[in-house]
Design goal:
Layout: E1 2-6, H1 11-27, E2 32-37, H2 43-49, E3 54-56, H3 68-91, E4 95-98, H4 104-113, E5 117-122, H5 129-134, E6 140-143, E7 157-159, H6 163-169, E8 187-191, H7 198-207, E9 217-221, H8 227-233, E10 243-246, H9 252-256, E11 261-264, H10 268-277, E12 281-283, H11 293-302, E13 307-309, H12 317-328, H13 331-344, H14 349-361
Parallel strand pairs: 1-2, 1-4, 2-3, 4-5, 5-6, 6-7, 8-9, 8-11, 9-10, 11-12, 12-13
Helix pairs in contact: 1-6, 1-14, 3-4, 6-10, 6-14, 7-12, 10-13
């Protein structure tokens, strides 16, 4: 099997692609891959580190308002389609897969015009501009949330889930002490992502002393860029009760499988991981992302009782502290949320995607 895969801009597009590459390799050890991305995106660093052949296209995103820049973007898109066709002819793939981000636009579109089987994977409940465009042309549209189905041709849509969920679901639980947690206490993980989220961090700092009498422990992930500044704002930071402050967590799946409540943003990958493990959550969507898609993602969980939604504009220290305390002190509520979150998970996402690929290729 020869596969071209494209996706970039954010880890939410890149890591599902890498998980899928790994799954294909496990089933087809002789499979060959070519990853097409941008020279300046995260994919340019991440993908080569996984020993996957990588080539680049110069592509930029469409502005959501009338702009002369959009004229340049369209010309750039057409140029990139031509370059993508060259790469496709040279590699001669059986299938071309796009996992989101504007870079996969010209790549997947070029493949559709060349008669090659194509598949796109949409991680969010509100699809991005690129996938909405490509959905008209591709052979298959794989989604992670039922809410995304209405944006595409129903005959092409398959609910597969996010490949990252498959990896997390396979994580071996070695116990809380193996990742430095207290096995005698429940654990709340609070994180604004790898770079942190200032509004969440500020809310936690203001209420941090309130955890001195908590019956559970809190792991507060600040994000590397905020870590030292946050420590300097907290009195007697090294002697906090029930709170551990860390800049980041390197092996998140091993950590997630041992927590009882997650507090943080609602990126698609995060939600795939949480639901695959049945972890209740308090979700605070980033309002700064394209088309506010994190709020739509969050509602896909909270509308089904798998978590609680707090919009950033409504976020206060007291509100967040009270919600965390209420959930953690109510065993029945926590259990119900866990069951609801688990029902939303799709831990066999990789297998579902593989089945769709095999069907497209008549394997």
């Amino acid at each position: 099997m020869r596969v071209i895969i494209s996706g970039g801009g954010t880890g939410g597009h890149i890591y599902p692609a890498l998980s899928l590459v790994k799954a294909i390799n496990e089933h087809y050890p002789k499979a060959e891959f070519l990853y097409l991305g941008t020279p300046n995106g995260l994919e340019a660093t991440i993908v080569p580190s996984h020993k996957i052949p990588f080539k680049t296209l110069k592509v930029s995103g469409i502005k959501r308002s009338l702009s002369l820049e959009n004229c340049k973007t369209v010309l750039q898109f057409l140029t990139s389609v031509g370059k993508a066709k060259t790469y496709i002819k040279e590699f001669n793939p059986d299938i071309v897969i796009g996992t989101g981000g504007y870079v996969c636009g010209p790549v997947v579109y070029a493949a559709t015009k060349m008669g090659i089987k194509t598949l796109i994977h949409e991680q969010n409940s509100l699809p991005g501009i690129t996938n909405k465009f490509l959905g008209r042309y591709v052979d298959s549209v794989c989604i992670c949330f039922e809410e995304a189905k209405k944006f595409f041709n129903q005959d092409k849509v398959v609910l597969t889930g996010n490949p990252r969920a498959s990896e997390v679901a396979k994580t071996l639980k070695l116990g809380k002490s193996s990742v430095g947690l207290n096995p005698k206490k429940k654990t709340v993980l609070i994180s604004g992502g790898s770079r942190g989220a200032r509004p969440i961090n500020d809310a936690i700092i203001s209420m941090i002393k309130g955890y001195d009498s908590a019956t559970y422990e809190v792991i507060f992930v600040t994000g590397s860029v905020h870590y030292e500044a946050i420590r300097s704002q907290i009195e007697n930071v090294d002697y906090l009760k029930n709170v551990k402050i860390v800049p980041f967590i390197e092996d998140m799946p091993k950590f997630l499988i041992n927590i009882d409540l997650f507090v943080g943003r609602s990126g698609a990958t995060t939600l795939a991981e949480l639901t695959s493990l049945g972890i209740p959550s308090i979700l605070i969507p980033s309002p700064y992302v394209a088309e506010n898609h994190q709020e739509f993602n969050a509602r896909s969980i909270t509308d089904h009782s798998g978590g609680i939604l707090i919009l950033e504009k409504d976020l206060t220290s007291d509100k967040l502290f009270n919600e965390i305390t209420k959930i953690m002190n109510d065993e029945l509520s926590l259990s119900k949320m866990k069951i609801a979150a688990k029902k939303l998970g799709i831990p066999d996402a990789n297998q579902r995607l593989l089945d769709e690929i095999k069907q497209l290729l008549d394997l």
